[in-house]
Amino acid sequence: MITQVDFLNRNKVENILDIIRLSNETVAKNFGLTRENAPGHTSFLTKEKLLTNKENKSLYCLENGTDIYGCVILEKPANSENGFFLENLSVLPEFRHKGYGKILVEHIIDTVKKLKGQKISIGLIDENEILKKWYLALGFEIVGTKKFKHLPFTVCFMDFKLLQK
């Protein structure tokens, strides 16, 4: 079941912060990311960063009552009328390849539809071909790439466009 987590629930937020870091450690290892060369990467997420702009964010987790399999954040930027960001999609390694990531993304899509949003944007490591193909299969489209001086990889930007009636 997917539940929305209150950012004021300190114990749950700490648990989810651990899940986000653990889930993204494999990406950091695969791409040689460290605190020195990519301090902003999700595998090094701090509580302060997680709680930044929390008034514009919704945090969801997929759980069975005792175990949390993964989580995702939906952000509604203050400067965007109909656009949202999907952030920190994380599934613990032992629960991968069971469709949990897809369930979380579909929940975000349904939530944005209810909010009458028109677009969900994401950013990911462009060199992560497996993840890029996974998002493409879910209906996201590549809208651009950018190399940032402070990152050791290129960022791929993708959008999921929703048709509203």
Describe the structure.
- The chain is α+β, with helices and mostly antiparallel strands and 165 residues long.
- It has a single domain, classed as Gcn5-related N-acetyltransferase (GNAT) (Aminopeptidase, 3-Layer(aba) Sandwich), CATH 3.40.630.30.
- It has four helices and seven strands, in the order E-H-H-E-E-E-H-E-H-E-E.
- It has a seven-stranded mixed β-sheet with strand order 1-2-3-4-5-7-6, sandwiched between helices.
- A hairpin with a 6-residue loop joins strand 6 and strand 7.
- The two termini are 28 Å apart.
- The model has no long low-confidence stretch (mean pLDDT 93).
Keywords:
30% helix; Aminopeptidase; alpha+beta; 165 residues
In order across it, which strands form the biggest sheet?
1-2-3-4-5-7-6
Number of domains: 1
pLDDT under 50 segments (min length 5)?
none
Question: Would you list the SSEs in sequence order as H and E?
Answer: EHHEEEHEHEE
CATH architecture field? 3-Layer(aba) Sandwich
Please tell me the overall pLDDT. Answer: 93
Sequence-ordered SSE layout with sheet pairings:
Blueprint: E1 2-5, H1 10-30, H2 47-51, E2 57-63, E3 68-75, E4 83-91, H3 100-114, E5 119-125, H4 129-137, E6 141-147, E7 154-161
Parallel strand pairs: 4-5
Antiparallel strand pairs: 1-2, 2-3, 3-4, 5-7, 6-7
